Amino acid sequence: MQTTIKIKLVPNKAQKKLIEMTLSEYISSVNNIVSDFAILDNIDKRTTKDVDAYMPSTLINQSISDAKSIFKKYKKACKKADSWNKKHKEKQPKTVTLPVLRKPVAIWNNQNYKVSEAAVSFPVFVDGKSQRLKVKALIPNETLERIQNNKLGTFRISVKNNKLIGQIAIETNIQELNVHGTMSVDLGLKIPAVCVTDSDKVKFVGNGRKNKYIKRYFRSKRKELGKTKKVNAIKKNQNKEQRIMKDIDHKASREIVNFAKDNNIALINLENLANIRKTARTSRKNRKNLHTWSFYRLAQYIEYKANLLGIEVKYVDPAYTSQICPMCGTKNHAKDRKYTCNCGFHGHRDIVGAINIRNIVPVTDGQSLSA
Questions:
Q1: pTM assigned to the model
Q2: What angle do CA 105, 108, 114 make, to 5 degrees?
């Protein structure tokens, strides 16, 4: 399974200038090649000799490969649009614009870069010649160990908040575990996650009250800053909140996956919450939290960490899972967090939801989930 590792690059001024120039040249090269393909309405047999770009040949080859991929997706989108227009002649026709890369980026294949304990080296053009640039990088020991113990893929450099970020694709060796069980995870606001195994072991993960307090605190601070029109301070406030919430989600997902590992779980059922913001009914005080809560991010963290252990993750339709009685199948509304049924069954509402999620046959995979 392929995953991506991010590392922070710390170049000196001269190196940063060279890298930024390379990124700009790379996207310019890709855009020019895609434009040529569009004029020809076909992909030609293009080589490094046919491309005029101030880059090493390895980057030119990669830019040709990327341009081919982009143009193929563009043609596929055009065919879909044409098909739709033929079926819906009475409606305004759909059009597809030729993709244009705007964000600076460059990609090296696995044969053209090296990662050491505190640096990454890769070729760029210096005074018209290809030279290997060795750039300082902040690589935690755990990350370095993963890089050294797995097969490397491409190395990508992009710019985020005026900082250079390196992304290394790796082929992870999935661990073989003696697993067989099924576990479900019910996601929510008051209780971020409730896990139930097929042996009816239950685990509550996270602190919803604490999470909501953090969001209220930062929201009130932004409101104060908004009155004084301190735009930069508002952005810093938002970034800080996101860092804290991401850290909380990382820790919660690790706790959930460790619980699955300890109970020999082979499959985790998660709710497909793609349209929860449109369909969920909640109190007025929780409405703002619902629309800013990243269920998608937590689900992705769970899936990513579970896959590293060889645990499969499937997504199920969560409709009525907190209302259906697991014993007799009738629908009942819980009062606060207490669920009772006329058949005699009673329990915590979120546990009921998790049990029903566990019992549903998965119908979608993670790729259908949208933020």
A1: 0.60
A2: 125
